[in-house]
Structure formats: C-alpha cells, structure tokens
Amino acid sequence: MTTLPVTEPPRRELTLVQPEPRGRRATLPPRHLADLDQAGRRAAVAALGEREFRAGQLSTHYFGRFERDPGRMTDIPAATRDRLAGDLLPHLLTPVRELSCDDGRTRKTLWRLHDGSLVESVLMGYQDRVTVCVSSQAGCGMACPFCATGQAGLTRNLSTAEIVDQVVWFAGQAARGDLPGCPDRLSRVVFMGMGEPLANYNRVVDAVRRLTAPAPEGLGLSQRHITVSTVGLVPAMRRLAGEELSVTLALSLHAPDDGLRDELVPVNQRWKVAEVLDAAWSYAAVTGRRVSIEYAMIRDVNDQPWRADLLGRLLAGQLAHVNLIPLNPTPGSRWDASPKPVEREFARRLRAAGVPTTVRDTRGRDIDGACGQLAAADVARAAANVVQAARDGHHGKEREAAQ
Ligand code: SAH
C-alpha cells in the first residue's frame, strides 16, 4: 500500500489476452486486401476467376496511390475492378468526426467501424516529417486509471486492415498536399492510439509487415520509423524481439517502483518493473534499437525527485531514453499534470544520471488530441443518446456505438 494520493484502484479485471467469445468472428470486419500478403491476394483474385496479376494492380492503387475508388482504377476493365474492389476493398472506416488545429497540421479523426465500434487516429505534421498515431484495439483492457481509453474497457481487437487503413487514409491526405508546410509523404507510425498493441499481437505484427513492405505489397515505410508502445506484456515483448523487425519499442513505465506502478499500470501486478525492464533491454540488445521509456508526469503522484533518481539508476547505461509526457487530465479525474518546474527538475535529474530525456510535444490538446479522449467523449454522448432513445421507445445505431 502507498500513502501517496494514488488510491484509485483498477476498476476492472485486466484483460491480458483478448478472449475469444462466441460470435466474435461476426464483429471482425470483412477480409480486406491489407489483411493479405501478395500470395494471399493472388489467391483471392484467382478465386474470383480473375488473372492473378490483377492483385498487383489493385495493390498499386491502394498502397501506391492511396486509391480505393474502383471508378478511378482505369487500368483495370470496369466489370473486373468492381468485382475485385467489392471483394478485396470493403469499406472499413467511416469518419464520424474530424478535428484539426495547428493550421491543419494536427488532425484527429474518429472512425466508426463496421460494427459500430469507435476508434481514433491522430495525424501530426512537422516540417520534416508526418506522423500518424494509430489505434490497435477498440477500447483497451489494461485499465490504467489515468488513461481515458482504459476507463471504457476492451471492445475488440482491430483487424490488420483496420489498422493499416488508418495509415493509408492519412498517407493519402499528406500526398494530396493537405498539410501546409509539411512533407507530402507520411513517414512515421506510432501505435499510441487506443488499445494495447501487444495484446493484439498477430494483427499488429502483420500490420507492421504491411506498412513496411515495399509497394505494391505495402506502404514501404522504414521499420525504424514505426514505434510500438506497450504497457509491458513481457512474453509478447520477448516474442517481438524474435520477429527480426527493427521497430522502436516504447515502454509505458510511469513509475520506477512496483508499489506505485501496480496502481498506475495494473499489468505490473503480473510483470514487475525489474522483469519488464529486463525484457526491454533484451529487445534493445537484439534489435540495437534504443527503447523509449514513457513516463506521464502526474502531479504529486510519480513526479518526486527521489523517483527521478531511482528511475535514473534503473536506466543509466542502458540503450534507453525517457520521454516525459505531461499528463493530459481525463474528464472527472482528480489527477493533474506536474507543474513545469517539477517536470524540469525531474528531467534534470535523469539527465544528470546520464539518461537522455525529452519532454513530449503536447500537440492536439485543444482537440482532445491525446489519449482516447475524443472517443471517450463520443462514447459518453452515444450512451446519452441510448438513454434518450430508450425514453423515446426506440433503439438507434447509437446503441451499438455505446457497447
Ligand atoms: N497501450 C499502449 C499504447 C497506448 S497509449 C501503452 O500503454 O503504451 C500511449 C501512451 O500514452 C502510453 O504511454 C500511455 O500510458 C499514455 N497515456 C495514456 N493516457 C494518458 C494521459 N491521460 N496523459 C498522458 N499520457 C497518457
């Protein structure tokens, strides 16, 4: 037990592994081109009675030109392209809300999936790069008490194509020159939207393969420009190290001591700080990639100088850097971001211990750009609609959205 003001217990059981409830298949979307590798696409095209090279043409449209409208695939005969697109390019993501700030260089999209689930993605354009933050699950089962997504629980895993399609949408926007003053090529992907990527392991790894395969098989992004962020599912971290992928691993540590981390990141009750850091260092050793240690700065909770010193001792000499994230307070929470002088002192102590430390850019705050808040707001609104609909005596689509 801790005497710090950190008494909000995890509100639910953790959902470490996505259970496979009966009928779950029905909630996954129809199969899409991006779910398949090239061989799978050729087989799918052949099964439709079409020539196999059409798989390459369709892939070039989708991954090379971000084109999903069969009407514009004029190198394929009309009847064929309708059949191919009908089978291999089902509509997966419907934009429900789009918000932007920073002169259009930060954009957030809330998507409705085919079963009414809501997920979000954020695009961040800079002078030298365009980054998209994607969701890997609808909701999340990890129950971190400071995270808006964590409050709603897990709805379901996203399919590989539902993950990839978030990136392809934004890659298309960047290519059209919609982001003023930014490159027209989307270059980075971070798995820091909704969900715990390593709890949807196979689909996330498949999505990484699609994103990094050269066109037309995939988007041709560099593996080093992909960041997978995790609460610290140790067996999955070790498995990822064996994939021969050189993606960047981000570990959401948030506390250097088990007493506090058990509360802030409840999965710590299963895998302790020492174990999770050990898995991170193995990942760094195998891949040669510096691990990013994520640390949300929460006022009077995890921001004490002694915790900075303890963290510094744990990380010194390792292939790691610390990314301090000013807490984005979730609605209704009594936790707040650390004051700037406290944050600066925390960073100073880490650097003094020889640990490279940066403070995360807080882009998109004015559009609830961080951490599940837009979807959380919409789920709340949808739930209110359900109540209203029940009063009115009918059940609308909102009901699905709220579940
Ligand atoms: N489940 C993964 C990825 C999603 S969240 C993970 O936990 O790593 C991406 C990062 O945002 C994580 O480090 C997470 O702890 C952090 N985060 C979540 N809610 C936050 C909030 N309200 N303020 C600041 N950071 C938050």
State the end-to-end CA separation: 34 Å
The average pLDDT is 87
Strand order of the largest sheet: 1-2-3-4-7-8-9-10-11-12
Low-confidence stretches: 1-12, 20-26, 382-403
Radius of gyration, taken over Cα atoms and rounded to an integer in Å: 22 Å
Strand content: 15-25%
Account of the protein in words:
- The protein contains 14 helices and twelve strands.
- The chain is an alpha/beta fold and 403 residues long.
- A hairpin with a 4-residue loop joins strand 1 (94-101) and strand 2.
- Helix 2 packs across helix 3 and helix 6 packs parallel to helix 7.
- The relative contact order is 0.12.
- Mean pLDDT is 87; it is low at 1-12, 20-26 and 382-403.
- S-adenosyl-L-homocysteine binds at residues 142, 144, 146-147, 192, 196, 229-231, 252, 294, 296, 325, 327-328, 330, 371.
Task: Give a nutshell description of this structure.
This protein is α/β, with parallel strands linked by helices. The chain is built from 14 helices and twelve strands. It has a ten-stranded mixed sheet with strand order 1-2-3-4-7-8-9-10-11-12, sandwiched between helices.
Please give a handful of descriptors for the protein shown.
single chain, 403 residues, alpha/beta, 10-stranded mixed β-sheet, two-stranded antiparallel ribbon, 14 helices, 16% strand, elongated, disordered N terminus, disordered C terminus, binds S-adenosyl-L-homocysteine
